[in-house]
Amino acid sequence: MDQMTALIEELNRRAPQLELREYEPMSRHTTFRIGGPARLMALPATQKEAVAAVRAARELGISPFFLGNGSDLLVSDQGFDGFIVKTTGLDQTRVVNRRLRAESGIPLARLAMAAWGQGLTGLEFAHGIPGTLGGGVTMNAGAYGGELVQVLTSVTFLNDAGEVVTLPVEECALTYRHSLFTDHPEWLILEAEFELAQGVPSLIKIKMDELAQKRRSKQPLDLPSAGSTFKRPEGYFAAALIEQCGLKGVGIGGAQVSEKHAGFVVNRGGATADDVRRLMELIQNTVYRETGVTLEPEVKFLGF
Ligand SMILES: Cc1cc2nc3c(=O)[nH]c(=O)nc-3n(C[C@H](O)[C@H](O)[C@H](O)COP(=O)(O)OP(=O)(O)OC[C@H]3O[C@@H](n4cnc5c(N)ncnc54)[C@H](O)[C@@H]3O)c2cc1C
């Protein structure tokens, strides 16, 4: 019996309600709409199921990959010959003494709406970011001057020893698109807690709407992408450098440097992961040759 078949049997025994999918097309789980099949995907509905899935996999020597909304991810055309735990079923929130606690699979948009619903301000910036809280904490997601680190108080996760640990945010090393969790991809973020200020609901809503309008006017939201393809190099803006090098609108196969925002590579129809990879390399090589600046991918790669 191969390892994955053994894992399926073990999961059926330990967590009979846990949803499992074999050879699941990853193009259904990434905002790029790209990616071949994942050998096995678990979609836990509770933290208990998620923890059981991870523990069972590790006991069989399998390291799971944790997936949120796949909005920062390029999966290879061959797919991923491993085990994925998709967290979007973990989406509960609760408020205790103005502290908002949320599970890691909740979309950031819903989290911002939950805060607004409680009259709490501070998460408006996150409303338009199409990821989950877990993916957001990992990358210290941010926009329009806001970053998760500004409002988080603690993060609860399952470590590689199978223990559930809570760390104050000061110990989570959240900086620009980086955290302790990018250094420890084997840790599963389960929950996070925020301290938010009391606000005026109508003003919170106005701010979210304004930021959504800004996004719609600047970003190619009508085409699949993974947002900003590259991190902001210190002292520069990736999009400006890419545009300056004459790359706006340049394409390889179905992948294209967005004509609306050069910082985005978009899937204009039928793009493969290989098209995106080759276009990213072309951008990096051209920008380095023309400006001497190295562009580092913000997008994560899986299955390459
Ligand atoms: C149109 C568009 C606009 C965007 N705008 C912004 C923006 O303004 N600001 C910004 O910061 N980002 C932006 N992004 C990028 C992306 O939405 C964020 O990085 C988001 O935080 C990723 O979350 P996710 O759930 O989709 O993560 P995924 O893509 O699923 O995963 C990303 C990484 O996080 C890890 N991860 C996910 N969940 C967990 C977990 N529970 N525990 C441990 N590790 C986990 C994964 O293993 C992977 O390494 C944009 C993307 C798109 C498509």
Topology:
Elements lengths: L2 H12 L4 E7 L11 E7 L3 H13 L5 E3 L5 E3 L4 E7 L6 E4 L2 E5 L4 H10 L2 E2 L11 H7 L2 E2 L2 E2 L4 E7 L5 E5 L11 H4 L4 E8 L1 E2 L2 H18 L6 E4 L9 H7 L6 E2 L2 E3 L6 E4 L5 H19 L8 E3 L2
Parallel strand pairs: 2-5, 3-5, 4-19
Antiparallel strand pairs: 1-2, 6-7, 7-13, 8-14, 9-10, 11-12, 11-13, 15-18, 16-17, 17-18
Helix pairs in contact: 1-2
The structure holds flavin-adenine dinucleotide.
Which CATH architecture of the largest domain?
A: 2-Layer Sandwich
User: How far is the N terminus from the C terminus?
Assistant: 26 Å
Main sheet: strands, sense, barrel: 5 strands, antiparallel
Share in β-strands: 25-35%
Specify the oligomeric state: single chain
Mean pLDDT: 97
**DSSP strand count:** 19
Which fold name is given in CATH as the topology of the largest domain? Uridine Diphospho-n-acetylenolpyruvylglucosamine Reductase, domain 3
